[in-house]
Amino acid sequence: MWKRTWQLPVFLLALSVAVSSVAADQWQGKRAAVVFIYDDTLNVHLDKVAPALDAHNFKGTFYLAVGYPNFQARLDAWRALANNGHELGNHTMFHPCEGGMPGREWVSKERDLSTWSVARMVDEITMTNTMLQVLDGKTKRTFAYTCGDTKAGGESFVAPIKQLFVGARGVKAELQSPQQVDLFDIRSVVVAGQSAQQLTAMVDEAIAAGGLLVFLFHGVGGEHPIDVALESHNALLDYVRAKQQQLWVAPMVDVAEYIQAAQAQSK
Ligand SMILES: [Zn+2]
């Protein structure tokens, strides 16, 4: 059974800004883009986060590990979330991660990516897509690397999964323009204990830079060691809504499709 004792290897508070020259209104007619994503199939995402997003008229992306008990126990609720316009993203079935390194003691032998093959990981991810499609009927979605890991048995599985997704989320914190984004390493900011003020400051940075800002949440008011207060989360939503004239807020799959089209057009 998965133990909730892990941490991501890096915690970056300061965003690095890669955006150099900024074209105005390059994000669906807005200055910058914001994506809210929620990892690991938590009850709090259904019970607290989704109502908060809906109250602000925002749609987010929920990266589900479909082998987790919270997926099976609440199938109807996850389906309702998708019907409501949120993206159900792929976060594998059983959340395998590379073990055998400091901070990864919680990774079980059976779910240690360092002992898996690329083929096994691709099978796992493919089956997860099938299960999510049964639930939401969608054939396009995005992936989130578990623990940010991109290798199985020491080999990269990034290229083999490209045909399965519009894009995949990584864990480097950076603001980028549509042209700069690597669709299979979409940058994100891990939200872990920041204050509302620290989070809203990043929104201002994104607007100034004209970049894509992805907030990666796990626990929101509990249920995961990587956590942020519900009040800070909701204050962030308030702030983004207040700045909505300058911000495009959408699920990851919509933003990834937009980037894909923008990059294809410029070739
Ligand atoms: Zn995860």
Automatic annotation (TrEMBL):
GO molecular function: hydrolase activity, acting on carbon-nitrogen (but not peptide) bonds
Endpoints of the signal sequence: 1-23
Annotated SUPFAM superfamilies: Glycoside hydrolase/deacetylase (SSF88713)
Gene Ontology terms describing biological process: carbohydrate metabolic process
Keywords on record: Signal
Keyword Electron transport included in the entry's annotation: no
UniProt domain NodB homology: residue ranges: 32-267
Protein name listed in UniProt: Polysaccharide deacetylase
Species this chain originates from: Saccharophagus degradans (strain 2-40 / ATCC 43961 / DSM 17024)
